[in-house]
Amino acid sequence: MRQLSRVAVSIEDIQKMVSEVVPDGEVSVVPVQYGNREYIRMSTSISYNGDQGIYLTSTGLRQVMAFIEGGQGLGYDGVALAHNGTDDVSSQRIQVVKRFINERYGDRVTVRTMNVDATLALKDGFEIWLGKGKKQ
Q: Residue 28's pLDDT is what?
């Protein structure tokens, strides 16, 4: 997979970078305060066989890369795979995405899972959030 050549200077830039991967899909990159930390979160309308927000396709993984690499330009170096009481299928998907991120970025990006309130997370599945400070 190729490295992105642009550097984001705003959250809007990150949203544009992610949107370019799937021009016909809707992408939302917004700041969120959770606990005592600030994050940015990505929501997407891409779907595969009716499974919305899936990141396990090549297009989905390219979106993840655009989000992470855009966020690095703004100092985001931690990835949180945010979920709400993940089911078995989502747990397996989280592990695949986590492994992909670890293999792709090594120690440049810290990845962890994070259980968040139902009002913030998808009912089923997970979202990708970025935080600063590697411990996020």
A: 84
